[in-house]
Amino acid sequence: MKLPPYVKRRGNVYWFRRRVPDDLIPLVGRGEFMESLKTTELDVARTRAAYRNAEVEAVFEKARYDLKRQSGTVLTDDPTPEQQQYIRDAVRFHLLDEDESVRLSRPGEDNLDSYDDYRSNEYDTVAEGLRTGRVAWGAHEKAKMGKLLAAVGVQVEPGTPAWDVAAYRASEGLHAALRDIAKRSSEDHVPTPMRPVLPASLTPVAPVEAVAETSARTLGDVIDHYTEGLPDNEFRRKVVRCLLLFGEMVGRSTPVAELRQMAVTNFMRDICRLPDKWARRFDAGESIATMLAVAPDKVMSPSTYEANYRGPLGTFLAVAARDFGDDGFRTLSVKHIKYTGDRVPEEDQQRPLTDAELVTLFEGEEFRRIAADPGQEALYWLLVVMLFTGARPRELCQLNPQVDFGAMEGHCYIDLDEKTAAGVGVKKSIKTGETRRLPLHAELVRLGFPEYLQRVKDAGGDRLFPSWRVKQGNPFSAHYERVAGFLKVVGLYTRTAPPGELVTGAYVLRKTFITQCRNQGVVSKEITGHSDGLTTAMQDRHYVKGPEPLRRKREQLAKLVMPVAIPKRAAQASP
Q: For residue 567, which of 361, 392, 355, 414 has the smallest C-alpha distance?
């Protein structure tokens, strides 16, 4: 059940939580309101949260009034060294203070993991910006940087001589704070510094008068209200990106009473004409109108349209009509607005390899070279282990030999588990969220995979392939081209086949494993995901609890014989 706005649950008790807008933090004196509602009853929590939210809103209104009256610091010329140092230190303090508030609120493990992952990705982005000098480059990033500077009491107009320097120094403070936050995520204590004092050299001048507020609620107001109540995770980022585009194309300043179904319908049809990488170009400063003016080589896919736009926007419209119907927000819908782009469903889906193709892949000269090359050991094991486990490539690459490898009754196994300790820089992710314990197939044992795992474990390795770099928490994404390149060399790679018939990457081995299991009668549910016909769907959902016995999985895997003779690694080959 979806919780009411600003209501969170910790254990059995409901809490009120609402963030303070960045520009009001200096006046309110805190980054968020986080308070127990002292009840375990949802109806009581809803009422108490509504009253508390009204009180908080009154605090915000007073702060906004004071913000208009007080003087602000507007930089127009290059900041002095003293001013630059203040910007750097103030931004670092601001983020560390905000992070401290998050941790003191004691979020659940999943929420904290999502928060730490978000900060880790942000660190990579900021570091790249500082390296290239492209900080706050796009319109969206400029707006975020402006809010960050405003939060530390400095106003700078983009395009002025002061902007580039101020934005760069703020990014340095942001980079330093994110590095400290990463240390906190690793359970190191990093104290929040004292709030830096605004230097006297920053002479206040009267700020530009804000546009007078009207009584009419705008689409932008509703979008902001909706997104503030979402948890800080990957789903929130997807929704925010969708509503950013919706507000940009329909108009954030549009009064909600003037919003019509035709605007929603036109928006959904127009986004089907956008380039599939529209977000990157928009962040770089290109307008949506410019992108729509030229037919792109490739538009978004039907699955992206459904999952990232039609679904999130439909939910937003329903909630907005419920919460802001009194302000004139009509009941609008995306229910019957179909995808109108020129791409087809599952066009990027890969197929399983045939028996002959498996021979080409694993018995050819190219794979023998990989087996003989010490520098290709990681690629060798990735391909072989995927073939005999059917695991996804990220699931394997994130495996931590220190905790995800063991033996039971004399048989080795690996655990695919996102809750066990992850390697440094790795954000574990299992698509279904369900832990799987997989016994090692006899062929993997013959090839020496248990010895490889033990060797990595004894060396202190915390990832299956310690030599491969991690990109934004994912230990496989930076190495996708290794597999694609191998498929190209052996002549199996193709992107010109009909939809669902492609061979482009590591997932062909997962498809091959599952297909071979089906053809050979291997039906262990936790390995293949296929029902064995012994239980009904109702029993699987409501009655069958606990993992399958490892013995049953071993018995099933023993039936599986891959139609290929895989060469051993050179160092492991018999004399």
A: 361
